[in-house]
Write a structure and sequence with these properties.
Layout lengths: L1 E4 H6 L1 H10 L2 E5 L2 E6 L2 H27 L1
Parallel strand pairs: 1-2
Antiparallel strand pairs: 2-3
């Protein structure tokens, strides 16, 4: 994961976008991570994973309630 300061991200916005398309970019402010920029593909993958985990938990609860 690449790390950039907020100032670097602002001044090099195009570079940050290009980098985020290949790997997540951690943006720091005052030396602390505040956001992570990811590609659309990575965001969709993460969203799908989270949705599937939610469905698995719900199915597990339903199965437990039946038993």
């Amino acid at each position: 994961m690449r790390t950039m300061s907020a100032r670097e991200a602002k001044n090099g916005f195009g570079l940050m976008i290009d980098t985020a398309r290949a790997e997540p970019v951690l943006i720091e402010k005052h030396g602390r991570g505040v956001v992570v920029v990811v590609s659309v593909e990575e965001y969709e993958r993460l969203s799908l994973t989270k949705a599937n985990e939610g469905k698995a938990v719900k199915a597990s609860r339903t199965t437990s309630e039946r038993n």
